[in-house]
Amino acid sequence: MAKVSPHALKGAGYVISTTSVILLAVVSWKGASQDPMLAACLFGGAATSIAGMCCRWTSYAIEKRRKHMQRDALGSV
Fold it and tell me: 25 and 42 in contact (C-beta within 8 Å)?
């Protein structure tokens, strides 16, 4: 069995989650497009969900980079 890094697995999870939000929005669009308020809520909900996933991914990447920098700094002392 091939080893998968946690970093790659987490990235795949975020891509899958983003794809699912987009697919659910596409399916819901027919009904929501009839009412401007529903359309705005659908678009806003999908956009904020994807933005939230991007924020979580970014925070994870920052933490990972900091850990690597700390490890490198301790190794060079």
Answer: yes
Average pLDDT over residues 52-64: 90
* CA 47 – CA 50 distance, rounded (Å): 5
Q: What is the DSSP string of 23-45?
A: HHHHHHHHHHTTSHHHHHHHHHH
Tell me how far the alpha carbon of residue 59 is from its chain's centroid: 11
Q: Is the pTM of this model over 0.85?
A: no
CB 64 within 8 A of CB 7: yes
b (16+ CB within 10 A) / e for 28-44 = beeebeeeeeeeeebee
Instruction: With H, G, I as helix, E, B as strand and everything else as coil, classify residue 52.
Output: helix
CA atoms within 13 A of residue 26's CA, in its CB half-sphere: 6
pLDDT at 73 over 90: no
